[in-house]
């Protein structure tokens, strides 16, 4: 009889252990309904902190150092965007950090309208994360951009970005570095229209969203990793990066620090910071990454 009680007691303990949140019940990361969700839904509805740390006051994964920064969604600070009407934005990477470019999120609603970048500054990439936006040039030609679509606006190119309803975009800007006889043209495009490119020595899937001609002083790549895949090259290079994780999760190595990262996270990488990524979890990682290119570092 005593042994039956002992068994029931132990079973009771197990049941308790497996049902209590945060104790023997770490979230599996298995998202069975992920397929039913809109593209990039995690960026627009990020997990603000790991479940077991949600109620911990002051907890953030964000880090800011001279050589890199990780800005996770729970530390985004939104405010009015100067020169834009009815738009709120969060500057996530800016020259105050040491970068030569600006990266921010902008949330548009039905009366929103963009302002123009400063003279000589290219709005080198806008990418739609949620909703739709309309881009219009000086002659009144408009194009509707949906989630996963993007545009490039050369320096001193008159244009506006508006939305009929709600739209969230990520924006990159930098002072254009001119090159004699090369003039960048405005562009619009969409990720799914780009072929997968060869990546000799690597296994991730690569799409280049900007023409690789010398007119453009940067590139924007979309990189996809299946869970378990990682960068082969432990990269160290003179270029800077601004990165937005669109899907998935994994570990980013930046210098001597190793960071758990997930969709919605933004990373700034200074020149020569050692960098490496491995995808984990059950779904692919997709990230959007800016890199200065096509100009001599001198
Ligand atoms: O092109 C790049 O430098 C890219 N592979 N870097 C990165 O993913 N951190
Ligand atoms: Mn790199």
Automatic annotation (TrEMBL):
Pfam families cross-referenced by the UniProt entry: Cupin_2
Signal peptide as annotated in the record: 1-19
CDD domains per the UniProt record, alphabetical: cupin_UGlyAH_C
InterPro entries according to UniProt: Cupin_2 (IPR013096), RmlC-like_jellyroll (IPR014710), RmlC_Cupin_sf (IPR011051), UGHY (IPR017627), UGlyAH_cupin_C (IPR044697)
Example of a GO MF term: ureidoglycine aminohydrolase activity
Keyword Signal applies: yes
PANTHER family xref list: (S)-UREIDOGLYCINE AMINOHYDROLASE (PTHR34571:SF1)
Cupin type-2 domain sequence ranges: 222-288
Keyword annotations of the record: Signal
Protein name from the UniProt record: Cupin type-2 domain-containing protein
């Amino acid at each position: 009889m005593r042994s039956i009680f002992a068994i029931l007691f132990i079973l009771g303990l197990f049941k308790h252990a497996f049902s209590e949140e945060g104790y023997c019940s770490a979230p599996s990361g298995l998202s069975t309904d992920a397929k039913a969700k809109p593209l990039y839904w995690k960026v627009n509805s990020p997990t603000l902190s790991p479940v077991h740390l949600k109620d911990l006051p002051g907890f953030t994964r964000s880090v800011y150092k001279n050589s890199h920064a990780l800005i996770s969604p729970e530390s985004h600070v939104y405010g009015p965007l100067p020169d834009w009407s009815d738009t709120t934005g969060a500057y996530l990477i800016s020259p105050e950090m040491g970068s030569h470019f600006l990266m921010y999120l902008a949330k548009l609603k039905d009366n929103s309208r963009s302002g123009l970048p400063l003279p000589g500054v290219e709005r080198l990439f806008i990418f739609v994360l949620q909703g739709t936006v309309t881009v219009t040039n000086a002659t009144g030609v408009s194009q509707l951009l949906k989630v996963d679509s993007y545009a490039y606006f050369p320096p001193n190119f008159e244009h506006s970005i508006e939305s009929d309803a709600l739209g969230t975009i990520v924006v990159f800007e930098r002072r254009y570095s001119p090159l004699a006889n090369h003039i960048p043209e405005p562009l619009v495009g969409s990720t799914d229209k780009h072929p997968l490119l060869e990546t000799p020595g690597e296994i991730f899937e690569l799409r280049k969203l900007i023409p690789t001609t010398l007119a453009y002083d940067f590139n924007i790549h979309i990189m996809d990793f299946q869970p378990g895949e990682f960068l082969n090259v432990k990269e160290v290079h003179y270029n800077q990066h601004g990165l937005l994780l669109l899907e998935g999760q994994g570990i980013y190595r930046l210098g001597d620090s190793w960071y758990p990262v997930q969709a919605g996270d933004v990373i700034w990488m200074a020149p020569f910071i050692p960098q490496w990524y491995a995808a984990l979890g059950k779904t692919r990682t997709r990230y959007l990454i800016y890199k200065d290119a096509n100009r001599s570092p001198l």
